[in-house]
Design brief:
This protein has 188 residues and is mostly helical. It contains 7 helices and 2 strands. The chain has helices spanning 3-24, 42-52, 72-84, 88-101, 126-143, 149-161, 181-187; strands at residues 69-71, 112-114.
């Protein structure tokens, strides 16, 4: 049997299966169709994030890889998600990790830590610190808990140290000669 004949035979089998299914109707014919499962909601996403919080309090940013990289930006977004989801305890657990490791000299936090032990493994970037500052401010606004305001003040001072005296923009990191729109939008 040639290639064209094999292809034709396969098409006939597929067409026959389709025709049988159409004539027979759905497998639940005569019975009410099963109700579709509701999609997972925000609580499922928050539960997933809770499961990513490591022993120090940082989240493991990438589940599938073998690293325990925890990005400051991801932690900031997780804090915001927990605050909006009314789980202030989980938000505080992440913020406690930043309080535990403490800021770098000059007030900012590096962009990456190890989720397992809190070791810093990154650079001081404006963007990650801007989002962390927003997360701390959101936490304070909703909870009224001033525990992390000293961290917010240090981050704000760090970001101001990156400000260009000429045009007011924020440089990407200490010593950088570039400014990005994203980082500057994050700061405001």
């Amino acid at each position: 049997m040639g290639t064209a004949q094999k292809a034709a035979a396969i098409m006939i089998v597929i067409a026959s299966a389709w025709a049988s299914a159409i004539v027979a109707g759905p497998a639940w014919a005569g019975k009410p169709a099963p109700a579709p499962a509701p999609p997972p909601g925000p609580e499922a996403a928050l539960e997933f994030l809770r499961g990513q919080i490591g022993p120090v309090g940082f989240i493991d940013s990438y589940v599938e890889d073998k690293t325990d990289d925890s990005y400051t930006y991801d932690n900031a977004l997780a804090v915001a998600a927990f605050v909006v989801g009314k789980d202030l305890a989980s938000a505080a657990r992440i913020l406690d990790a930043f309080r535990l490791v403490g800021p770098e000299p000059g007030g900012g936090f590096v962009h990456r830590y190890h989720a397992s032990d809190g070791r810093p493994d990154g650079r001081l970037y404006a963007g990650a610190n801007a989002y962390l500052l927003h997360a701390i401010n959101l936490y304070f606004q909703v909870s009224g808990d001033p525990t992390y305001t000293h961290l917010a003040e240090g981050i704000a001072e760090f970001l101001l140290s990156l400000q260009d005296s000429g045009d007011g923009g924020i440089f990407g990191y200490p010593g950088a000669v570039w400014k990005s729109t994203e980082n500057n939008l994050g700061v405001v």
